[in-house]
Amino acid sequence: MKALDKMSNIDRAYLLAQLFPEDLKQLTDFIKQEADLYTVKKAYVYSQWTDGLITAEFWYRLVENCTRICSSNGTRLYRNPRTFRDQLFDGYDALFSINALIHFTEQPECSKKLKYAIYCLFGDSKLVMIDLKSMV
């Protein structure tokens, strides 16, 4: 096994999937729900966007990619750890998936072990700080 600092996002996602196979469906469903929520709240997100490193247009390309990946892969995303890692954590698409995983750690259904594993593998800082639940 590679050292953590030598692992790519694909390696980290595969390790997470292998360590928590029973949670893979829940994680995949949450990532898809995040993409759906961003799609529904698009106008609000654009109005609140302030981040200069990542533009809202770029973020929404990631959201669209995630939606397409979830539609085209279906249950394979959580039934096959390799599909999970290759589809959701390759290249720039990993930015959206990692952000969703970190947001998942804030949910009551996320166990402490899973939360700490996500923090260890991906950190605890979200890329997008817009709270879609508190929308006016």
Give a brief rundown of this model:
The protein has eight helices and no strands. It is mostly helical and 136 residues long.
Give an overview of the whole structure:
By secondary structure, the protein is mostly helical. It is built from eight helices and no strands. It has helices spanning 9-19, 24-40, 42-48, 56-73, 76-79, 81-88, 93-104, 112-122. Helix 1 (9-19) runs antiparallel to helix 6 (81-88) and helix 2 packs across helix 4 (56-73). The model has no long low-confidence stretch (mean pLDDT 93).
Rg result = 14 Å
SS-derived structural category: mainly alpha
Q: Roughly what percent helix?
A: 55-70%
Number of helices: 8
Q: Tally of extended strands?
A: 0
What's the average pLDDT?
Answer: 93
Largest sheet: none
Compute the separation of the termini in Å.
47 Å
Strand content: under 5%
The global form is globular
Poorly predicted parts:
none
Helix and strand string, N-terminal first? HHHHHHHH
